[in-house]
């Protein structure tokens, strides 16, 4: 139990500490390659074959020997037909093979002439070649994509659709992936009402709809987690302790929103300190200062602020890399990119700021006019965040660091 208040930490410092706690989960499972999207690979995928397997044609046309076509207009006899999926026989000198895209090049042939560059002399049996071929043209070489023994995917990679395709191309029907993190999620706040429980016209004064629950669940699912949604917990010490105690059983992470600020209605932090330990509280970012990390029994605990944009941003900056690290992922955070600001931000803040911004057609960035941490519209309008260092202002034309949301949500 730790009662005293730790100093406010920088984001980098806090993240380094969190990642230090994020021992990869030991569980692994074999899943169908069909179902592996978004999971983190727990093995290297090494190819047992060459891809393409054999030299094959990149075009519908004719396979031939270049030496047989010294000039345009040469006529060759067509002695075989090789559709994709079949193999030809030795190509005799002075002859051509009708060949289709993907079909293996017959032994002896050293080029393919596309059918647009040939004309039939006697249909099916003789062609006139209208261009002089160069050796190797329109031939896809065995192994030009993957060589036997190549590591095509490394352990720690998050499986995207293209990875699944590549794994399939080397013959893998199943992949060994890391276990899904089990996350228990709940929101705190006596003001919270679920959409559907009360119609907007009947919403009592002071009540608000629980929006965090929806995006946090969506974010967790995108990261491959199994989510236990424990709903809304009232702003009471006993209820909070009970919810946390239950959530910590059989889960790798307990994630909460709200109740980690400084008011006397904020029960989450003291409850964690009572049940387990609180390692970290308050981070020098805006939005998102009241973030907390601790442990309850074997489970990690992360408390996000209640303000929706603060909750969203702290999830992206801290929870996301942590959950990826729990799955043994190697790529924990996108690098960001330099972009031109087409806006000004004249008020410097002591905290590092994440401003909701959008790329414009001129190749610059616009800023959402209301950067308040309660304005969720800003996250929907934005396609990324500007990472503004502490104490910095931005003038029109300055270069800023932009973090595309598509990379942070993936
Ligand atoms: P708190 O961090 O509990 O002090 O909450 C800060 C602000 O965020 C308050 O205005 C809350 O009403 C709001 N808030 C807290 N939880 C949620 C939630 N789940 N959905 C939407 N707003 C919330
Ligand atoms: Mg609250």
Structure description:
- The chain is of the alpha/beta class.
- It folds into four domains: 163 residues, Molybdenum Cofactor Biosythetic Enzyme, Chain A (3-Layer(aba) Sandwich), CATH 3.40.980; 43 residues, Alpha-Beta Complex (Molybdopterin biosynthesis moea protein, domain 2); 85 residues, Molybdopterin biosynthesis moeA protein, domain 3 (Beta Complex), CATH 2.170.190; 73 residues, MoeA, C-terminal, domain IV (Beta-clip, Beta Barrel).
- The longest helix has 19 residues.
- The mean pLDDT is 97.
- Bound molecules: adenosine monophosphate (AMP) and magnesium ion.
Mean pLDDT: 97
What would you report as the Rg, rounded to the nearest angstrom?
30 Å
- Give helix % range: 10-25%
CATH topology of the largest domain: Molybdenum Cofactor Biosythetic Enzyme, Chain A
* Count of the separate structural domains: 4
Number of helices: 8
CATH class of the largest domain: Alpha Beta
Distance between the termini: 36 Å
CATH architectural name of the largest domain: 3-Layer(aba) Sandwich
Characterize the overall form.
elongated
SS strand fraction? 25-35%
Strands side by side in the biggest sheet: 7-4-6-5-9-8
Number of DSSP strands?
Answer: 26
Q: What structural class is derived from the secondary structure elements?
A: alpha/beta
Largest sheet: 6 strands, mixed
Report the uncertain regions: none
Bound compounds, each kind once, are:
adenosine monophosphate, magnesium ion
**CATH level-4 homologous superfamily of the largest domain:** MoaB/Mog-like domain
